[in-house]
Amino acid sequence: MLERQSMVEAALNAVLPASGHAPGGLHSAMRYAALGGGKRIRPLLAYAAAELVNADMSRVDAVACAVELVHAYSLVHDDMPCMDDDNLRRGKPTVHVAYDEATALLVGDSLQSLAFQVLSETVLCDDAAQQLRIVKMLAVASGSLGMAGGQAIDLDSVGKNLSLPELEFMHVHKTGALIRASVQIGAMCGERIDEADQDSLDRFAKLAGLGFQVIDDLLDAESSTATLGKTAGKDAIDNKPTYVSVLGIDRSRDLAQELCDNSMRALDRLPAGGARLRDIADFIFHRKF
What letters, b where the CB count within 10 A reaches 16 and e where it falls short, cover 144-179? Predict the structure, then answer.
């Protein structure tokens, strides 16, 4: 993981415009938002899925950058006053606090655009049609049918009592869509796999994405701000529906374990049992920060 995280950091550093390149303030803020923090779960998943299909890792660097740039943009916008209004992210002031709101808005826009620039200017696979499918998959996962749509549902749900299926629907989009896309895109960069293996990968990614959110909700309820690197307990303060508010602590833990077990089983038919994906899932479900 440390090796792959270092690869992502180096690749991001290379594709992000230099702070001295005009407009310097915007480029400085983009680098502030994207570099030097985060677990890089989505790139790690992309690399792990790509290993299963014997992909050229130098090509997968672009995929890893793209999914992380989309994720970073979403965090910048999510933290803004018009969204969750948070002042801490990855242990440092959020972009709109460190810079200003207008800059934060442009940072998010620019990181998202850069993600698709990176995908379009890099040869990801030998089939041009497959490369277009990769670009489309990330676009759908990022937009109103994916992450942005899930965020819209989240904002509309403040102060409401959601059922468990409604909560799951929200997070399949808000959190899960980009995680699923990271796995799927990584697996599209190498040798073709059969439909059954594709379905297994997608099932794994869906379950891992939901589990990631359950663990996030548990950590928000039980950990400190210093441990999380972001404001702890903010979901409850903002009266947002979470797995903890719907199920309680104990049932949320049980659900996380169930999702963990099922995600692992989804990998059983893959080569070597999807060992690298299994390791990342284990980290997702047992992380403490």
Answer: eebbbbbbebbeebeeeebeeeebbebbbbbbbbbb
Number of domains the chain contains: 1
Greatest Cα pair distance in the chain: 52
Q: Are 217 and 231 in contact (CB under 8 A)?
A: no
Residue 157 tokens read as: 């749900």
The 3-state DSSP class for residue 249 equals: helix
pLDDT at 158 (0 to 100)? 92
Integer Cα distance of 95 and 108 in angstroms: 10
Determine the straight-line distance between the first and last CA of the chain, rounded to whole angstroms. Answer: 16
What is the percentage of the chain residues whose pLDDT exceeds 70?
99
The predicted pLDDT at position 289 comes to 59
Q: Identify each DSSP E strand in the chain by its residue range.
A: 88-89, 92-93
For 279-283, what is the mean pLDDT? 93
pLDDT in tens, 144-203: 999 999 999 999 999 999 999 999 999 999 999 999 999 999 999 999 999 999 999 999
How far, in Å, CA of 145 to CA of 168, rounded?
15
In this prediction the pTM is: 0.95
Instruction: Measure the CA–CA gap between 236 and 244, rounded to whole angstroms.
Output: 9
> Cα separation of 108 and 72, whole Å?
8
Distance CA 96, CA 108 (A): 11
Q: Residue 154 sits in a domain of what CATH number?
A: 1.10.600.10
Range of the domain at 243: 2-286
pLDDT band at 38 (very low <50, low <70, confident <90, very high): confident
Q: How far apart are CA 221 and CA 203, in angstroms?
A: 27
